[in-house]
Write a structure and sequence with these properties.
Radius of gyration of chain B: 15 Å
Strand order of the largest sheet of chain A: 2-1-3-4-5
Distance between the termini of chain A: 15 Å
Oligomer: heterodimer
Helix content of chain B: 25-40%
Shape of chain B: globular
Strand content of chain A: 15-25%
Structural class of chain B: alpha+beta
Structural class of chain A: alpha/beta
Number of helices of chain A: 5
Largest interface: A-B, 22 and 28 residues
CATH architecture of chain B: 3-Layer(aba) Sandwich
Largest sheet of chain A: 5 strands, parallel
Radius of gyration of chain A: 13 Å
Number of domains of chain B: 1
Strand content of chain B: 25-35%
Chain lengths: 128, 150
């Protein structure tokens, strides 16, 4: 089954990088949505069926952790989430994992992002 | 400044340019290669157990190369996308360098990256904490971390 994805990052360049990595990952992709802040991200999650969310922590309007918290509260759908951050502190990583998401510190190689996505989604979604 | 902090900053910057910007960094050693004036700049402010800002400046060749590499397509790219790419690199270098300098359990908060225009000087607000110059395959980069304990 194809996976619908939301990529939430205020950097257009980082969104492009993450989408390119997704396309090269072997994951069967459906719709790919983009959000430039947490508020936009929540609106998309409220109106679309999304199975995988990639979230940057540092975003304007609503940061990634708040977006994740509200998304978990508002939707009962099962969603795989990978949170990326320039701040790789233990405190930040623990906060993300408490919310049931994978954590990835920047900079990351494309294969690191792919592995985090696969851990989050499960290997069943990934082709060879 | 201390030699240890300079090494931490250089390591963070090298990793960011290589993994995010997909550019090779030449190792230190004489003779230094100079290619291109440092023109474009980005600044990231931070607060927490350390307070200050990081300034990243690069030559035009580096700016064009990281933008193309991060987007995965050749330019020309808009000034907005070039600034976005440089700001993201500055943000990542800042986060990695601070974690290396003050430890992974420190409480720090990074602000959004801001573009530094020509003629704007922000460098005297805090003491120089660490500095690194990188010789890259597409030009050069200079990173300065200004900080003091909160």
């Amino acid at each position: 089954m194809a996976v619908n994805v939301l990529v939430a990052d205020d950097s257009a360049v980082m969104r492009a990088m993450m989408i390119r990595t997704l396309r090269l990952s072997g994951i069967a992709l459906g719709e790919i949505h983009e959000a430039a802040d947490g508020g936009d991200g929540l609106r998309i999650l409220g109106s679309r069926s999304v199975q995988l969310v990639l979230i940057d922590v540092n975003m304007p309007v609503m940061d990634g952790l708040e977006m994740l918290k509200q998304a978990r509260r508002r939707t009962r759908r099962k969603m795989a989430v990978v949170v990326v951050s320039s701040d790789g502190s233990e405190r930040r990583a623990a906060a993300v994992r408490r919310r049931g998401a994978q954590f990835l510190a920047k900079p990351f190689a494309p294969e690191d992002l792919r592995e985090a996505i696969i851990r989050s989604l499960g290997a069943a979604h990934v082709g060879s | 400044m201390s030699a240890h902090r300079d090494v931490v900053l250089r390591t963070a910057a090298t990793r960011a340019f290589e993994e995010l910007g997909l550019l090779c960094v030449r190792q230190e050693g004489p003779p230094p290669r100079v290619s291109g004036a440092l023109r474009a700049g980005a600044e990231v402010s931070f607060t927490g157990s350390l307070e200050g800002h990081l300034i990243l400046r690069v030559s035009r060749g580096v700016l064009d190369a990281i933008t193309a590499n991060m987007l995965g397509r050749e330019g020309p790219h808009s000034a907005s996308l070039r600034s976005d790419a440089l700001g993201e690199l500055a943000n990542v270098i800042c986060g990695s360098a601070l974690a290396g300098c003050v430890g992974p359990s420190a409480r720090l908060s990074l602000g959004p990256p801001a573009r530094i225009g020509a003629g704007r000087s922000t460098e005297e607000r805090r003491p120089l904490y660490a500095r690194a110059s990188l010789d890259l395959e597409a030009g050069r980069a200079d990173v300065r971390l200004y900080a003091m304990s909160a």
